[in-house]
Amino acid sequence: MTATLDHTAAPLIRRPAGRPLRQLVVPYLYVLPAALFVAAFLLYPMVLTAWRSLTHFDGISDPTFAGLDNFRDLFADPHFLLSLRNTVIWTVAAVIFPVTLGLVFALAFSRVRWGGFFKTVIYLPATISAAAAGILFSFVFNYDNGILNMILRGIGLSGLASRWLFDVPTNTFAMIATYTWQQTGLNMMLFLVGLQGLPPEPIEAAKIEGCTGWNLVRRIILPMLMPYVVITTLLAIVNGFKVFDLIWVMTQGGPGRASETLAVTMYREGFILFKQGYSAAIAVVISVVALAFSYFYLRSVLEQEARQ
């Protein structure tokens, strides 16, 4: 009987064999294409740009090491300082107008008749590219035969007709209006997702207590929606900070260089004036700021997921 017990207990204490090498390697093979893609098209360009920001390089001759000279020159360059100011204006406007309007439309059309139709109309501009939106509104703001000036002249307000894309700072405001038209729908959808995830009990309890209308929104809905407000705001800041295509299509940073942002200045310095080391320094500045806001954006997303 003892021998039988020993014989049956032996398999129970035997350790399982180690995993074959193939099973250890195969999961990494699935990840390898994505890792190579990231390394080739993200990490390598980032390292190369950081290195070139420390050199004088025209894209043709060999780069010469310059240390931090490019970064010192940036903050003594009036064009860079002007583009930095314009970028701040763009970033603030990208938060105030598209985010605010997106929130207003989400609250207004979330539970109304024909709400789906209005939400579709508002979201449609987000489905086209910024370059296409820029081309479209270049015709709208054209001085001679643009739709806006034609309407103003047709209703007897010819004095308000303006060279929208050639006068400073009117051209910046015109481009911000175009950007708002395109981005509002995307922000609205983000807020609609947040509204659908709100628990109904606090809202129903507040309505029973007589809290309705603006008081309901201000005291109950907005506090619960605040994580989505933070996420949408940080995302709008990142997108507004690096906007390029819409500006380039509508004004190319003109007249002169009066409406340039950092992204436009980076492109002009690198690919038109062939000062690629200087352009790389601007790219590093943009990347550092964008990464900082992206960090807070991702942290907000993870915190929101943790709450759920």
From TrEMBL:
It comes from the Bacteria. One of its GO terms (cellular component) is plasma membrane. InterPro entries: MetI-like, MetI-like_sf, UgpAE/MalFG_permease. Residues 84-297 form the ABC transmembrane type-1 domain. Keywords: Cell membrane, Membrane, Sugar transport, Transmembrane, Transmembrane helix, Transport. The chain crosses the membrane at residues 24-44, 88-109, 121-141, 278-298. The keyword Cytoplasm does not apply. One of its GO terms (biological process) is transmembrane transport. CDD domains: TM_PBP2. It is a multi-pass membrane protein. It is found in: Cell membrane. Belongs to the binding-protein-dependent transport system permease family. This is Multiple sugar transport system permease protein. It comes from Kaistia soli DSM 19436. The lineage of its organism: Bacteria, Pseudomonadati, Pseudomonadota, Alphaproteobacteria, Hyphomicrobiales.
